[in-house]
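Usage example:
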Amino acid sequence: MIFPKWTNTLPTMLLGGTLAGLGLVIGLVWYYFTPKYWRTGYMPAQPAVSAAFEQDLFEAARRDSRTPEIPGVMYPGFSHQIHAGKLGMDCRYCHSHIEESAEANIPTVSTCMGCHADGHVNTLFAKAERVQFVRDAWEADAPIEWRRVHKVPDYVRNFPHHVHIHAGVSCLSCHGNIMEQPVVHQVEPLSMGWCLECHRNAEPHLVPRDKVTDLYWVRDHFESTNFRNTSGTGADGAATPGGAALLKALEEKNLHLLPANCGACHY
Amino acid sequence: MSMDQCHSTVGEQPASKPRAASHEQVGTDGRKYWRSVEDLADTPDFREWLEREMPAGASLLLESSRRSFLKLMGASVALAGAATIPGCRRPDHKILPYSREVPEDVIPGKPLFFATSLPLPGGDVEGVLVETHENRPTKIEGNPLHPVNRGKSGLWAQSSILGLYDPDRLKDPVLASLPGDEGSKSRSWDDVAAWFGPHFDRLATKQGQGLWFVVEKRQSPTRDAVRAMVEKRFPRARWVSYDPLHSDAQARALGAVIGKPCRELFKLESADVVVSFDRDLLGLEPGSLVNARGFASRRTVETGAMSRLYVIESSLSITGGRADHRLAMAPSMIPSMVIALAKELASQGLSLPEPVRAALGRTGTPTGVTIDSTFVRELAKDLLKDDQGWARTGRTLVCAGPAQPAGVHALCVAINAALGNIGRTVSYREVTADFASNGAEGLSALTAELEAGRVDTVICIGVNPVYDAPGTIDFASRFAKATHRIVASVDDNETVAASTWRLPMSHWLETWGDAVAIDGTASPIQPMIAPLFGTRSDIEILAMIAGVANPDGYEFLRNVWRERLAGASAGGFEATWKRSLFNGVFAEGTAMAVDATVGARAADQIARLAEAGAPATGENFDVVFAVGNVGDGRFANAAWLHELPEPTTRIAWDNVAMVSVATAVKYGLEQDKATTEHRMARMIELSVGGQSVRLPAWVTPGVPDNTVVVQVGYGRTVCGHVGTGVGFNVYGILPRDGSRSARGASIRRATSGPLSHQIVTTQAHGSMEGRAIVREVDLPAVKKWGSFESNRALLAALPSEKRDRIKYDSYKQERDLNFAEMLGELSHTPANVNAYINPQRGTKTMENAPRGTHPSAATGRPPQPNTLPDFAKRPQWGMTIDLTTCTGCNVCTVACQAENNIPVVGKAEVNKGREMHWIRVDRYFAGPNVANPDSVLFQPVACVQCENAPCETVCPVNATVHGPEGINYMVYNRCIGTRYCANNCPYKVRRFNFFEYGTRKLNGGFIGQETLRGAGIDGPSNVNLIPPRLREQINNIQKLKMNPDVTVRSRGVMEKCTYCIQRINEARIEIKLKNLDYIPDGFVQAACQQACPSGAIVFGDIEDPESTVAKLRNGQRSYSLLGYLNTRPRTTYLLSVRNPNPALITDKHRRHAWDEPFHHGHGPDADHGGHARSGGAMPPEHASASVMGVDTLKRIEDQGYRLSLAVLAGV
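Running the assembly step on the lines above writes:
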C-alpha cells in the first residue's frame, strides 16, 4: 500500500477546497471591487493649501476619524460640522447656485471673507490663525484649492443638483449627515445601482421643497439611518407631507419624471 | 481608361444586367436619380464598393505594420506601467472657485450667451451669440436680433471657434533679424512700442512718405476713426483696403449706373421669378444667409405661391442645384444670354430706356455661342406676366454674379429698373469708394513703388497678399524690397513669414470693435475672453502707429459710438450703449433712394459688351474661380472646413479643377490607375496669360464644356499644422480686377512633376443602394394630388380589394397614406407583421401612459399585441427635414461638429470611409444626362431615431437602447466596439471612432510625437499606442473648444446623432424648475436646426398637435426614409417640390407625372399582382419609360421586396 488510506479523501478535499477558495475569491471581488468599498469613506483633508498645512489636516482627520467632534480637539481645516452644524448656516449660503445650476458651486473667497475678514465678525474663531489661509487667498487674489470628494465618473454628464433639489431630494440623501462631519467624506457609493434605487422608488427620499436644506429637520423626520420619509409626522409631532404625497404631486406633471433610462445621464 | 469618374459613353444608357436593378433609381417625378458617374454607369468597382461596408484596408492599423505594432505595444505597456504605479489611489481632483473678482452673472455650470459680430471676407458680417462656459467661448449661434442672421448662422461663424483655440496662432511679437540684430526673437509689446516710437516719429517728419498700409477690407466706423488719426499723422501715407476676391467689375458697374459706390441687397421673399446669371445666391457670398431665408420663405408649398428660380451658371453651385431650371454655360457665353434676354424682353414689350436699346442693338451673338431661343422666350414671358396674365411688375429679380463683366451687371440693373424691381426685390446701399473696390490697383501701385525702392515701411493688417495677390501683381517677390515689413495677423501665414515685425493680432472673440454688414446694420464686436496670448486688436495696433501709447480698443469704440448714438433715445448714452451691446446691434441700415430712370446710365457699360473677346470654344477655355469652404484662404487652418465635403463634388481635403465630361474625354483627364479606394486624379496645367498653375482635374457633372472651375484658398505654404500644403494655390491666375472668371485659358495634361494626385471624396460613401430615398415632384402634381381630399377621391375610385390592401399602413394602423407616401414603396408594401416582439419594449412608462392619448383610443380598437409600444407620454421627439428648402449648404454638419465634439479624421481616413460627421448631406443628381444634370438634390441624413431600431436588436451589450421619448440612445461607456449596430443600420449614420482622432495631427503624425520622443520612443505612427497620461499632456489649448455638456468619445466607441440630447435634458430640467408641465414648441432646438439658414430642419414634440414638427409630419409631403423596413423613423423627410415653367418642360414622362405621379407601379392603383408578370397594364407612356433602362428592372426589384416581406410575415 503505497498511499495511506486517508488519501482516499484527497479528491473530495481538493474539490471542497477549490470550491471554497473560488467562493472566497468571488466573495472578495463581490465585496471589494465595488464603489461601495472603494469610494465610500473617501475623506481628503480640506482645503489643499500648503504641504505643511495639509500634514496637520491629515493628522487631525485621522485623529477625528469619522466621529463627531471630540471635545477639546478642533479640526484645523474647514469644518462642515462647525459651519452647517453648530452655526446652523444654510447650505445655500455658500453653495449659492445650487437651485439654478447643475453644479453645486464651491464658494468664492469673497464669500468666506464675508465673515472672516478683519473687523467683520469678532467671534472666537473667525479671526483665528487657522483661517489665515482665507485672508492670504484674498490678499493674493488667488483661489483656495479644495479637494473634490463627490465625483461621478466622466461618462456621466453633470449630476444636476438643481432639479434634484427642486424635486425635494434632501442634501442628506446623498451627502449624509453633513452637519456632523468635521471632514466631509463620501457616505454613499454614488454607483449607478445606488442612483437607480431612488429613481425606481423615490417615495421615501422626498421631503417638502422648503425643508430640503433644513438638515436637522430632515434628520429628525427621516428614519434614523437610511433617511426614509415614511412617517408623515415628525419628531415634533407636526403633520408633514410624506414621500407618497410629494411624489404624487410631482407625477401630475406630464413629463418623464425620475428618468431611469440611459439617456438621462450618459450622452 | 477607368470608368471611375469619366466614362466615354456619354449620353448612352448603361447596359443593364438584371441584378443591376438594385442600384437603379427612378425619381418620383419620372426622372432618374444618381449619386455619381460611377453610380449611373454601374461599374464593377462601384458595385464592389457598395457591397463592402468599409473599403479594403479599413481594418488595418494606421500606417503601421504588425511588427512595429508589437514593438510599440511592448514599449507602451512599459510606459503605461511606469505611469500608473500610483494609479491605484483615487486621483486628487482639485476644485478652484473664483477668488476675489467674481464675474458678473456667471453661475458655475450654466452657459452665458453674449452678442457679438463676426467680420467675414467680402465685407460681410454675421451677428452671433456666443455660448460661454465660465467665460470660455465654446459655440457660436446666430443672433436672433441681428437682421442678417435672425438666429441662423453660416459655415464660417460655426467654425471660427477653431481659430480662437488654434495652437498655431501667433503668440508674441517677433522682430526678425535686422542689420545689427542677432536673429529673431520674441518681444513684448513694450519692445514694440519702443521700436514704433522713433520709427514712426521719423516717418511723421516725412509726412508718411514711403509708408503703405495694406489692410483687410472691412466696414468699421471705429477702425475708420483710427484710420483718420493715422492719416492725420501721415498725410502722405497710402492706404489700400484689400480683398482679392471682391469683384471690381460689379462694383464699377453698380457705381457707374447707380451713381454712387454701392452694394446690392436682394429680397428673395418678394420675388416670384428669380433669374441668376452665374450668381451663387445661396452659396458662400456676402448676404447668403439673407438670401437663403428669403428664398426658403417662398419655397414652402403649404404657405403660399412658390417662386421660380432660373439659374444660368458656369459652375455647379448649390444655387444651381436648387434651381427650377438650370442652364450650364461657359462664363464668356453668359453675356450673350443676358443680351438675348434683354432683347427678348424688349420685343415682348418691356420699355427699356432708349440708350440701352441702342447699346443692345450694337451687340450680337458671337460665333460659337448658341442661345436656346425657346428658353429665352419663355423666360422673358415668365418675367413679364404670371400664368394668370397679370403683370409681374416689381415681383421679379434678375441678378449677375462676380464672374460676369461690368456690362452684364449694368444690363441687369437696367432690366430690374424696367421691370420695376428696384426698391422691391433689389435695393442698394451706399458704401465708400474704398470699400467698393478690391484694392488691387492700390496693391499694384505698391508693387511698382517697391520695385522702384521708394517704400520705407509696409504695414499689413489682417491680409495675406504674399499668398493671395493675383499672379499679374508679383507682390511676393517684391515685398522684401521694403525696408520694414510690419505684419499683424491672427494666424501664421505667408506674409507673416516674410515680415520683419510680426505682430500677433487678437481673434475677433477677444477684441472690441464694430462692423457694418452688407445691409448696413452696424453691430458691436465685444470680447468673450481676454486675449489668450497677450495679443492686440487691429484697432489698437493702428492706434499705436498713430502715436497712442497703450491704446484701449474699448475706449475708441465708445468714443465713436458716443457721437453716433448721441440723442438716439431716452436714457442717455449709457443706456443705449448697454442695450446695443446686449442686442448686438447698434443701428440698422437704410437703403439708398434710387430713381427708376437709372437704367439709362447703363448704356455705356452695355455697349462695351460687344467688344468682349472670343467665347470659350475649341481650345479656348474659361476659368471660373469659386469660393470654397476655406474662403479666400484665411480659414485654411480650420480642420472642420477642410473635412467638410464640397457641396457638389463631395471632395474633402483638396481643391480640384472641375471639368466637364467632354473636356475630360478630349484631353484624356481620366483618373490614373484609379480604383474606388484610391482616386488618382490627373494633374493638369492651367495657363492664363502667361501664368500657369497645376492642379488635379476632376470630372464634374454640370460643368459646361470648355470651362474649368477652380476653388481659391487652398495650397497655403505657411499656415499651420492643418492647412499647410492642402490643395493647390490658384491665385497665380486670378485676374487682378477680382473678377471670378478668366478668359483665354488653355489646359494640358501635366507632363512633368507628379502626374496624378490622390483625391478623397465622400461621394459614394454610405450609399443606400438606390431605393426611393429622395422623392421629388413638380408643383402641378402637388396641386392635383397633394391634399387628403384628393387622396380620398383616389381611394374611393379603387375596387374594394385594392382599397383594403392600402387601408392600413405598414404599421397596421388604419390611416390614409399621404401624398408623399403614395409616391414611394409604402404604398405597395403589405402591412408588416413583426417577426417577434421585443421584450425590452414592455416598459413601465408604457403602462403608465394615459390611455386617452393612445392612438388606439381614437380608432376604438384595443392595442394590438404585435404592434410596437406607443410612445404616448409627451414629449415625443421628432424631426422633419424639408428637401424643398434644403440648399445643401452643409452648415448643419459643422454646427453638429461644434456642438457634439466630433473629431476630424484627416484625408487618409476619409478615404477609408471613416469620416465622423453625425449629419451628412447626400447629393443626388437628377436627369438623364451625365454631363449636364437638370438639377441637384441635397438630403441631410443623420440618425433618424427609428422607433423599431435595427441597431438596438443586435448590440450584444445593450449600448444602444431606446428611451421613453423616442430617442435611440447611444451609451458610450457600454460600447465595446463590435460595430454590429453600424452593420445593421439601413441608413449608415453610425460613426465608429477608429483612433483617437482628437489627438492626431491631420497632416501625418500625431500631436505629442515630441512628448513620446522625450520618453525614448522614436517614430511610432499610432497615437493609440501612447499611454493616455502622456496623451493628456498634449496641447491643452485645443481642449478649450470642447462642449462641456457632451462626452469626448474615445476610440473603439460607436457614436451617432441623438437629437442633441444634452439640450433636451437641459430643457427638461428647466421646465421642471419652472413648474411647467410640458416643453413648449421651439424651447429646445437641435444644433443643426438652429444653424440651418433656410429653416429646412424642424425639430420638436410630435405628440403636441400644435407643434410645427407635428404639423409638417402629419402633412402631405412627409415620408419616412426606407419606411417599408418598418423602422418607424422619427425623422421624416418632406418631399422636394420644384416649380418648373410648364412651357419649358417637353419631357413627356415628366409632364405625365404632373397628372399621374404614381408611375412605375408605385401608385395605389397599380396592380401589384399583375405588373410583375406583365407590363401590359401600364399606359404607353409608362412602357416607354423603360427606354431609360429602368422599368423592367424596377419590377424585378418589387418582386424582391414582396418576397422578403412575405418571408418576414411567415406567409
